[in-house]
């Protein structure tokens, strides 16, 4: 971010050294701000003057951060030649595609995901999908799939240089949670995980409504600010609405490309209202006078397809930065799963009809033929008598 900032700030706005440093520190803290650390955003008279002079209004905070940060993921065939400089997942000779996303921690990178390609920072900020011409390349995968008989069930998340990174662990059908991070690390980190997959049977989506199955597929989004659905994304939107109700604006890191965009908070509101209610916003409940919890109403159903992913252990691989090509996250599944969960329809509409027919036949001596006769007697038979009577009078 600093190199691009130096180019723009120095060449276009003639900032002196003090102004340069003040604005850089402000933007750096703003880009890395979230509910835990809004209080660290610099606040002084120089910042107010600079923002006014440069016309940096809250509604362009995130666009500015995006333009200064850039997207360093591997997306073109030309990037394959300099893959060591690009952020990507790897497994042996295989490269796993990575995307930049917009989260409650600002701009982050995510790899090995099954979410729609609309869940990217570029789409959520600008409304356009990322250009990507490495699809179909032999050694490039969108998601790494493994079976019980595979010897290698791991991958490495590379391309961060020697900068400290903070990691999040979640399933391929989910996104990070603001309060479930692995912690910052200056050295490569190995995380041993265990996983249990949740799948659905054929026809599960069309044979049951959302209220019946009590889960959603990602394309069944009922959310306002996000183009896809997952339970964690739904919780983020609940938090967004809670923040808006209390502070009358939302932070810059939430997507806001909707018919009636919500106001974006300026940094002084982040320092005031958000710091004051930070714990409430994160936990989404308050402890009342009786010691109970007043929980924020948030009705988010499960993902129909998902995986339960748990961290078993994590290890800092000390002094291995040069060996693995910089700071990285290594995810490994040591104990392979031996079972999985499957969502299926136990009692369908067809089963209901068969059950009704069987019950009627057993207790009433009633069959389909009897049903036809009843319909004939009360409809067609009456109709024929009416027609006969009519023609008889004529």
From TrEMBL:
Compartments where found: Membrane
InterPro entries listed in its UniProt record: ENaC
Protein name: Acid-sensing ion channel 5-like isoform X2
Record key words, sorted: Ion channel, Ion transport, Membrane, Sodium, Sodium channel, Sodium transport, Transmembrane, Transmembrane helix, Transport
Topology in membrane: Multi-pass membrane protein
Family: Belongs to the amiloride-sensitive sodium channel (TC 1.A.6) family.
A Pfam family the protein falls into: ASC
Superkingdom field: Eukaryota
Major place of residence: membrane
Annotated TM spans: 345-368
């Amino acid at each position: 971010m600093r190199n691009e900032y130096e180019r723009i700030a120095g060449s276009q706005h003639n900032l002196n050294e003090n102004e340069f440093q003040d604005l850089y520190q402000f933007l750096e803290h703003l880009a890395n701000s979230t509910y835990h650390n809004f209080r660290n955003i610099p606040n002084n008279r120089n910042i107010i003057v600079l923002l006014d002079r440069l016309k940096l209004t809250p509604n362009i905070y995130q666009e500015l951060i995006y333009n200064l940060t850039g997207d360093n993921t591997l997306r073109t065939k030309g990037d394959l030649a300099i893959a060591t400089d690009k952020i990507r997942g790897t497994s042996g000779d295989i490269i796993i595609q990575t995307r930049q996303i917009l989260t409650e921690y600002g701009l982050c990178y995510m790899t090995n995901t099954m979410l729609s390609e609309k869940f990217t920072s570029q789409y959520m900020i600008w409304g356009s999908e990322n250009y990507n011409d490495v699809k179909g390349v032999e050694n490039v995968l969108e998601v790494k799939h493994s079976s019980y008989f595979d010897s290698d069930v791991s991958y490495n998340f590379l391309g961060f240089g020697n900068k400290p990174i903070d990691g999040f662990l979640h399933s391929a059908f989910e996104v990070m949670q603001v309060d479930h991070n692995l912690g910052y690390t200056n050295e490569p980190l190995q995380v041993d995980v265990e996983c249990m997959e949740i799948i659905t049977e054929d026809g599960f989506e069309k044979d049951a409504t959302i209220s019946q199955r009590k889960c959603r597929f990602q394309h069944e989004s009922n959310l306002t600010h996000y183009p896809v659905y997952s339970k964690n994304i739904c919780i983020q939107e609940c938090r967004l609405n809670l923040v808006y109700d209390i502070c009358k604006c939302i932070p810059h890191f939430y997507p806001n490309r909707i018919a009636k965009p919500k106001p974006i908070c300026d940094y002084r509101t982040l320092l005031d209202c958000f710091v004051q209610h930070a714990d409430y916003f994160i936990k989404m409940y308050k402890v009342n006078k009786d010691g109970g919890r007043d929980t924020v109403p948030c009705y988010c159903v499960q993902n129909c397809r998902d995986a339960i992913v748990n961290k078993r252990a994590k290890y800092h691989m000390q002094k291995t930065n040069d060996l693995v090509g910089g700071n990285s996250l290594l995810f490994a599944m040591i104990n392979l799963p031996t079972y999985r969960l499957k969502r299926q329809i136990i009692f369908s509409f067809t089963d209901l009809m068969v059950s009704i027919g069987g019950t009627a036949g057993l207790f009433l001596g009633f069959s389909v033929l009897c049903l036809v006769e009843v319909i004939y007697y009360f409809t067609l038979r009456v109709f024929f008598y009416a027609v006969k009577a009519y023609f008889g009078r004529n």
